[in-house]
Design goal:
The protein is of the alpha/beta class. It has 13 helices and twelve strands. The longest helix has 24 residues.
Length: 378
C-alpha cells in the first residue's frame, strides 16, 4: 500500500476558520478554482451531446483531435501537429499524477521537476515508485544522476510563480533530454493568461522542438481559461510514439473522457472569444489586487503570466523582522492574511524553496477581489 503524505491543503483548516470570522466574510484566494460561469457555447455543446448511450473513444473523437490540432496552430505556434498525436485526458492533474506510471517508470528512475512546483509532479513519481529531484539546472547534475533521469517536467507559465521560460531555455532542456533518453513533459496550462511576458512558447514550437516532437509532450487544460474545472477537460499532444503507447495503456485502464465532455472540449478549443473575455476579467482583477498587495508591503515576484501572484514580505505590516531583515515565514503571512479575512496559498506547499512566500489567486469575483484590496489597504 502506498504511504502518501496527507493532502497539504488540509492544513489550511484553522486559517480558513479564522478568515471566515471576518465581518465581511472570507475572501478565498487560495486554491484558485474558477468562479465565473461556464461559457454558453460550451454548455450548449455539452447538452447537445448528452444522449451518449455508447462507450466513448479513449483517443477522442476525430473532431476533437482536429480541433485541438487547429488550436495549437492558431494559439501556440505549432502548425505541424498531427491530430493522431493528440490525446484527451480526464483533467490535467490525473495525467500529471499517472504519467510516470504510464511510462513504466519505477525504482532507480528519476523524475525531475522545478524547485518551486505544483506538488503533483512529485506525487506522480512517488506513486510510480520512482525517485524525485527538484532542480532548475539540469546541467549541474553529474553524469551518474543524469543517466537515471527518465522524465523531466517543465512548467511555463509556472504554478505557483508565474515564471515564463523562453524558447532558448526550453530548447536547451530538450537537447539534454534527447541526449540522455528522457521524456520532456511541459505543463502549459496557463499559456493563454499572459500579462507581462512577451511570449509563452510551447514545447512543440519549432524553435524548441528542433522540428520533431520526438520525446516531447505538451500538457494542457482549459479549466482556467474556459471555467471548466468541473468538467475535467484537458489534453496532451506531441510525440506520436508516446501518444500511441499512452492511448493503448489508457484503453486497458479505462481512462476515458466522457463523450459529452469531449464535445464540450471541442467547442472550448474552437472558440477564442470567450477566452479573450475571461482573460480580460482576470486582467482587471489583477490590476486591483497586485497594487494592494504591494501597498501592504509584499513584493510580487515573477507572476508575469498565469492565475496567481507569488508574494513575499520584506518590511510592511510587521511581516518581517526589521532588525534582522529576514523574511517572514510562510505561515506568518498566511496568518496575517487570515486575520484580514483573506485565504491564500502557503508557498511551502510548492517545495522548500517556497518558504517565505504565499500564492494569491485571481480567481474570485470582482466584489471579493475589491474587498480583499480594501482590507489590505486599510
Amino acid at each position: 500500500m502506498l504511504n502518501l503524505p496527507e493532502y497539504p491543503w488540509d492544513a489550511m483548516a484553522p486559517y480558513r476558520e479564522r478568515a471566515e470570522q471576518h465581518p465581511g466574510g472570507a475572501v478565498n484566494l487560495s486554491i484558485g478554482t474558477p468562479v465565473d460561469p461556464t461559457p454558453e457555447v460550451i454548455r450548449t455543446a455539452l447538452a447537445a451531446a448528452a444522449d451518449a448511450p455508447g462507450y466513448p473513444t479513449t483517443h477522442g473523437t476525430s473532431a476533437l483531435r482536429e480541433a485541438i490540432a487547429a488550436w495549437f496552430a492558431r494559439r501556440r505556434n505549432v502548425p505541424d501537429l498531427n491530430p493522431e498525436a493528440v490525446l484527451p485526458t480526464i483533467g490535467s492533474k490525473e495525467f500529471v499524477a499517472w504519467l510516470p506510471t504510464l511510462l513504466g517508470l519505477g525504482a532507480g528512475d528519476i523524475v525531475v521537476y522545478p524547485r518551486i512546483a505544483y506538488p503533483t509532479y512529485q506525487m506522480g513519481a512517488v506513486i510510480a515508485g520512482a525517485e524525485t529531484l527538484a532542480t532548475d539546472d539540469l546541467y549541474s547534475l553529474d553524469q551518474a544522476t543524469l543517466s537515471r533521469v527518465k522524465l523531466i517536467w517543465l512548467n511555463s507559465p509556472g504554478n505557483p510563480t508565474g515564471r515564463v521560460d523562453d524558447a532558448a531555455r526550453m530548447a536547451s532542456v530538450v537537447e539534454l533530454a534527447r541526449r540522455i533518453g528522457a521524456v520532456v513533459a511541459s505543463d502549459e496550462c496557463y499559456a493563454e493568461l499572459s500579462w507581462e511576458a512577451p511570449e509563452i512558447p510551447s514545447i512543440l514550437d519549432l524553435r524548441v522542438s528542433g522540428g520533431t516532437h520526438q520525446g516531447l509532450l505538451s500538457v494542457y487544460s482549459v479549466s482556467k481559461q474556459s471555467n471548466l474545472a468541473g468538467y475535467r477537460a484537458a489534453f496532451t499532444a506531441g510525440c506520436p510514439e508516446l501518444i500511441g503507447n499512452l492511448v493503448k495503456t489508457r484503453k486497458h485502464a479505462g481512462m476515458i473522457m466522457p463523450a459529452p465532455v469531449q464535445a464540450a472540449l471541442t467547442a472550448a478549443v474552437s472558440d477564442d472569444q470567450h477566452v479573450r473575455e475571461q482573460r480580460e476579467l482576470y486582467r482587471r482583477r489583477r490590476a486591483v489586487l497586485k497594487p494592494a498587495l504591494v501597498a501592504f508591503g509584499l513584493t510580487v515576484e515573477h507572476s508575469e503570466a498565469g492565475l496567481y501572484l507569488w508574494c513575499r514580505a520584506e518590511s510592511a505590516a510587521g511581516a518581517s523582522t526589521a532588525e534582522t531583515g529576514q523574511l517572514a515565514g510562510t505561515w506568518t503571512l498566511v496568518q496575517q492574511m487570515a486575520e484580514r479575512g483573506i485565504i491564500v496559498g502557503p508557498g511551502v506547499f510548492y517545495g522548500q524553496a517556497g518558504e517565505g512566500y504565499i500564492r494569491v489567486a485571481l480567481t474570485a469575483s470582482d466584489e471579493r477581489i475589491e474587498a480583499a484590496a480594501e482590507r489590505l489597504n486599510s
